[in-house]
Amino acid sequence: MYLSRLEIFGFKSFPQKITIEAGSGVTAIVGPNGCGKTNVVDAIRWCLGEQSTKTLRSEKMEDVIFNGTKGEKPLSMAEVSLIFSNEDGQLAVEYNEVSITRRLFRSGESEYLMNNRTCRLKDITDLFLNTGLGADSYSMIEPKMIETILSEDRTIRRSLFEEAA
Amino acid sequence: MYLSRLEIFGFKSFPQKITIEAGSGVTAIVGPNGCGKTNVVDAIRWCLGEQSTKTLRSEKMEDVIFNGTKGEKPLSMAEVSLIFSNEDGQLAVEYNEVSITRRLFRSGESEYLMNNRTCRLKDITDLFLNTGLGADSYSMIEPKMIETILSEDRTIRRSLFEEAA
Amino acid sequence: ARAMFLETLEGIKKGFVQIFQRLFIGGEAEIRLSGSEDPLEAEIDILATPEGKSMKSITLLSGGEKTLTATALLFGIYLVKPAPFCVLDEIDAPLDDANVQRFCKMLKDFSVSTQFMVITHNKRTMEAADRLYGVTMEQPGISKLVSVKFD
Amino acid sequence: ARAMFLETLEGIKKGFVQIFQRLFIGGEAEIRLSGSEDPLEAEIDILATPEGKSMKSITLLSGGEKTLTATALLFGIYLVKPAPFCVLDEIDAPLDDANVQRFCKMLKDFSVSTQFMVITHNKRTMEAADRLYGVTMEQPGISKLVSVKFD
Ligand SMILES: Nc1ncnc2c1ncn2[C@@H]1O[C@H](COP(=O)(O)OP(=O)(O)OP(=O)(O)O)[C@@H](O)[C@H]1O
Ligand SMILES: Nc1ncnc2c1ncn2[C@@H]1O[C@H](COP(=O)(O)OP(=O)(O)OP(=O)(O)O)[C@@H](O)[C@H]1O
Ligand SMILES: [Mg+2]
Ligand SMILES: [Mg+2]
């Protein structure tokens, strides 16, 4: 199983749909300060089910929906999809390609979809169980986390080890 | 009043005496990871009277004394001096040059000196009162402090403003 | 003490906005008091919006934008009360090339009244300095100084 | 669960040391349990000493050394249980040129079993990537994607 592409629409500073082809190896994301690179990371965490607004650098979950600029009006929905290739059958579904989608409306309504059919978050977390993939997994790292991985407070380290077990 | 030079001997990774001429304008300190750049910053904070071992990245104050390496024996004393030019008479002493020194012995004994005569820490903090200089002043900044200056916990910001008043 | 604090606060408010607009080439910034009528008790809030964006809280700023905003606050304070010297340890690390250049230009301007000691891995910041000291460990664990004249 | 945890722990211990010595070209590193006989209850301590130094606790490490040590732990875990993909947001910022190169070389080696997405301002890391995406804001506040082919 590997990630084939990421689609973002209406999430944070992305009012127009963008697609990032993941591909194998190392994909670098570059650009000036404040232009939206870390928003892409937030989009991945969010799609995988992240519930903490603090981790998403927001005050309320609604803050992830495009908020408008001097020239553009705010949108009413944010949507992020992760599309995985499942040719090796690692994910326990009979499809060759599995897409997971998360949507949030300004009304507060939110939904999760698997291959375009609504499902519960639990279906998504069950799907990725034991793959090392998840909103709070150790696979999204930023400089601030370096301090926590090595810090005196050993509970974080313990959860890293337990997750790997 | 300006800083004319900094002398470090036996402090952290500096078993041999070094002198940094400060001069006017911008002095850059460069070098590979782990070679002792931030130790120079710790030396300045320590000389100005820093009491917190956590700020000095140590477990106990004794950790600031050169601890030895595979090839060298540990030293028994650390000493740092800051030498200021006082031609404009801003510092309330009749000397043209004022040096402040802090020493720590492995025995735990510590001393402060002004122009090579022992004094109390209070004499040093009184000397620099209202100059904006001090161990905990807002004039030593690292990336971690960026988070605290802007953080939700507003007490840090308040102390910045009060210090300037 | 109260009058003194108010006067300083007004100065920092102006200084912060001036430096912020220089670093962000525009944008809006503001220091506001909240939570109490008495300035000595009130909370000090910072609002910052880069040019053309519609942001409100500083938690939405990016890593680089936060660094520039905190720097604008620091130098805004220096406009009111210059510190004799200031040490900056790798605060240029999160900045892109354009922001490093603006940061260095500002450092040079302020270095007339404040001595700066800057620790950096960024070549542009090294070039902007008046003098350079190298710290190395030829023997592991032992720091030595190498003066790299730069003029 | 207990046997599983013990087996994973042994694997991570070996992995951490192997990666640490690769990143630090030598040095000593160790993962130790303390505080309790029962591995499921004990505290997990990390000891790390760069080549030739006589350090004990990781609090004495420098900024760059801490980043490399945490990276060694992360990739040590990946040796035991590879993650399908991993996102690294500017973790190369505190590293000097030599360490960035070692970091990139390791990234390339691990990218056989793990997909990496790396956010960086460092030119060397950009060069080491297989593909590059630029994110820009031609109109302030609106992010767009620009694909910068790199091969
Ligand atoms: N809901 C939203 N609507 C519109 N814009 C938003 C929203 N949430 C965040 N932003 C914008 O996203 C920007 C931050 O982007 P991000 O943190 O991704 O930058 P970055 O590319 O990582 O920059 P750096 O290199 O400084 O880390 C902020 O300036 C903010 O204006
Ligand atoms: N008491 C001591 N005796 C000997 N060495 C010490 C002592 N205290 C700290 N050190 C050494 O100093 C080193 C850290 O130096 P420092 O933090 O100044 O590095 P740096 O140049 O700032 O690196 P970076 O670029 O990674 O931030 C550690 O590796 C440690 O071995
Ligand atoms: Mg970012
Ligand atoms: Mg350092």
Strand segment count of chain C = 6
Q: Order of strands side by side in the largest beta sheet of chain C?
A: 1-2
The geometry of chain A reads as globular
| Helical residues, percent of chain A | 10-25%
What can you see in these coordinates?
The complex is a heterotetramer, with two copies of chain A (165 residues) and two copies of chain C (151 residues). With 165 residues, chain A is an alpha+beta fold. Chain A has helices at residues 37-47, 121-128, 143-149, 155-164; strands at residues 2-9, 18-21, 26-30, 77-85, 97-105, 110-114, 117-119, 140-141. Chain A is globular. Chain A starts with a strand and ends with a helix. Chain C has helices at residues 2-23, 63-80, 97-110, 123-128; strands at 28-34, 43-49, 85-89, 115-119, 131-136, 144-148. Chain C has a two-stranded antiparallel ribbon with strand order 1-2. In chain C, helix 3 links the parallel strand 3 and strand 4 (115-119). In chain C, helix 1 (2-23) packs across helix 2. Chains in contact: A-B, A-C, A-D, B-C, B-D, C-D. At the A-D interface, strand 2, strand 3, helix 1, strand 8 and helix 3 of A face helix 1, strand 2, helix 2, strand 3 and strand 4 of D. Strand 3 of chain A pairs parallel with strand 4 (115-119) of chain D, so a sheet runs across the interface. The structure holds adenosine-5'-triphosphate (2 copies) and magnesium ion (2 copies). The site of one magnesium ion has 2 residues of chain A, from helix 1. One magnesium ion binds next to helix 1 of chain A.
Spell out the blueprint of helices and strands:
The complex is a heterotetramer, with two copies of chain A (165 residues) and two copies of chain C (151 residues).
Chain A: E1 2-9, E2 18-21, E3 26-30, H1 37-47, E4 77-85, E5 97-105, E6 110-114, E7 117-119, H2 121-128, E8 140-141, H3 143-149, H4 155-164
Antiparallel strand pairs in A: 1-2, 1-4, 4-5, 5-6, 6-7
Chain C: H1 2-23, E1 28-34, E2 43-49, H2 63-80, E3 85-89, H3 97-110, E4 115-119, H4 123-128, E5 131-136, E6 144-148
Parallel strand pairs in C: 3-4
Antiparallel strand pairs in C: 1-2, 5-6
The structure holds adenosine-5'-triphosphate (ATP) (2 copies) and magnesium ion (2 copies).
